[in-house]
Design brief:
The chain has 163 residues and is mainly alpha-helical. The protein contains five helices and two strands.
């Protein structure tokens, strides 16, 4: 079994991209939502994703110039899994037509799944990190994404009763 290595900056760059995708998805979902409360949830999550992006950007900017020496040691099969998750994207499987005549339940379900995928990605990165600071960063990211799941699951329960 061999090990591939990802730097702290590479993992944080993936986090930034995931947050960017989330901002775009939640923006489009908010624009398409008919129910006021669901629209507000998507708007809040869009705002959260934007704020989280700033946090991750600050973390990335705070890494020392030699951060390329700080690696996450990841076995090949885990690296392949992480690459597949990144390649398929947390929100990439959604095309623009999804937001026309938006089905709010489907949008909430897609959001929950996307946030779960993000937690899986960050959990694997944390699990296989050999860098204590990187583990701390991943732990913070995981907590943020779990908050999103709780918010979305709560709204989904309400939406099932309404729609």
């Amino acid at each position: 079994m061999t090990t591939q290595y990802l730097t702290d900056s590479e993992i944080l760059t993936v986090a930034l991209n995931m947050e960017d995708e989330g901002c775009e998805f939640y923006n489009n979902a908010a624009l398409g939502a008919k129910n006021r409360e669901t629209k507000e949830v998507f708007e809040r999550l869009r705002s959260d994703e934007s704020e989280h992006r700033k946090i991750f950007k600050d973390m990335l900017d705070s890494l020392p110039d030699n951060s390329s020496k700080d690696y996450f040691g990841i076995r090949d099969e885990i690296a392949d899994y992480l690459k597949a998750l990144v390649d398929t994207g947390v929100f990439k499987s959604v095309d623009k037509s999804f937001f026309k005549n938006l089905n709010e339940i489907k949008a909430l379900e897609k959001s929950v799944q996307a946030e779960r995928d993000a937690v899986l990605f960050y959990s694997e990165a944390e699990r296989f990190s050999v860098n204590p600071k990187a583990k701390e960063i991943m732990s913070k990211i995981i907590d943020i994404e779990k908050e999103h799941i709780v918010t979305l699951a709560s709204r989904l329960r309400v939406a099932h009763k309404l729609f």
